[in-house]
Amino acid sequence: MPKQNFFQRTVSFTQELFNNYGQDDAFTLGAALAYYTVFSFAPLLVVAIAIASYFMGEDAVTGRLYGELEGLLGPDAATTLQDIVSNAYSTGDSLWATVLSVATLLFTASTVFATLKMSLNKIWQIEARPANNIIGFLVTRLLSFGFVVGLGFLLMITLIVNALIIGFMDQIASYLPALGPAVLGITSWVLATIVTAIIFALLFRFLPDAKARWKDIWAGAIFTALLFGLGRYLIGLYIGNSNFSNTYGAAGALVTLLVWTFYNSLILFLGAEFTFTWAKRRGFPIRPDHNAVRVIKEVRKVDGLKV
Q1: Does the pLDDT of residue 119 top 50, yes or no?
Q2: Are the C-beta atoms of residues 143 and 207 closer than 8 Å to each other?
Q3: What global pTM score does this model have?
Q4: How far apart are CA 65 and CA 149, in angstroms?
Q5: In terms of residue numbers, what domain contains 267?
Q6: 78, 82, 106, 111: which could form a disulfide with 69 (CB 3.0–4.6 Å)?
Q7: Taking the chain, what is the end-to-end CA distance rounded to the nearest angstrom?
Q8: pLDDT tier, 15 (very low <50, low <70, confident <90, very high otherwise)
Q9: Lowest mean pLDDT among 182-186, 214-218, 273-277
Q10: Over the range 9-30, which residues count as b (16 or more CB within 10 Å of their CB) and which as e?
Q11: How large is the angle between the packed helices 26-55 and 252-281, nearest 10 degrees?
């Protein structure tokens, strides 16, 4: 078989990537993840804000975070999330009410990661061995919650670094006024891409029941982060030009959040498919760990069609 050139390899890789994307029913997985994320979004924010606020002022954290959310989702959805988070902090005077609220918060916040883990396992053709006791369930939940805590620390680091960059850019702007905004925009984009790539690398490496080389994980994480940045811009344009409040009334903010999470879920799963295909093409396919088994896809033909 003749050796393929770069263009042929790229076309072949892309075909395999999107074939796997369709066979794994990424749209259904994305819809499921978006559904759980909508209900987990506020608890995730509460936990992340609580962790970041431990090292920084709560007003600084929430102000910056809600500013980003407003830019992504629009003012209505951002205000709705802000109200939900504010209500979550108001647990009342009862000790039991506080304990129940915190327990519910932690369980809900970890649900989205448990769902994401199952989706990544499916995309990487891996199935976890069934846990026959409560210990397995608790371990999964604790691992999922660990990612929630990690997001809080990443949020804190991002805010600190971003504040330092803004201060540095202000110094540059005082000497080179025309150059300051351009450098600030590029630096902010690079910072956001780096942080996003780190998040995806941690997700791909530790969340699924799989073993993969760090080289392949980073390749997939960087690809996903770049795709995520482009998607963020395009989704922002779509949401900005779609008046969901007029169409859906009071549910407009919820629909906005659902649309945003759905499209970002599709991007995340495309990145996971890229990682799987990349590792396979590099000769080091992703393997199940000791808690999982490989799933063999069976392709049958019915009336000439693959099913």
Answers
A1: yes
A2: yes
A3: 0.79
A4: 16
A5: 6-306
A6: 78
A7: 29
A8: very high
A9: 182-186
A10: eeeebeeebeebbeebebeebb
A11: 100
Tokens of 32: 């499921």
The per-residue pLDDT for range 82-106, each reduced to its tens digit, is 776 676 655 554 556 556 656 766 6
- Inside any domain, residue 1: no
> Within a domain: residue 283?
yes
Count the domains in the chain.
Answer: 1
Q: Is residue 289 part of a domain?
A: yes
Calculate the CA dihedral of residues 22, 28, 34, 36 and round it to 10 degrees. Answer: -140
Q: Is residue 286's pLDDT more than 70?
A: yes
Does any domain span residue 177?
Answer: yes
Cα(139)–Cα(207) distance, rounded to whole angstroms? 12
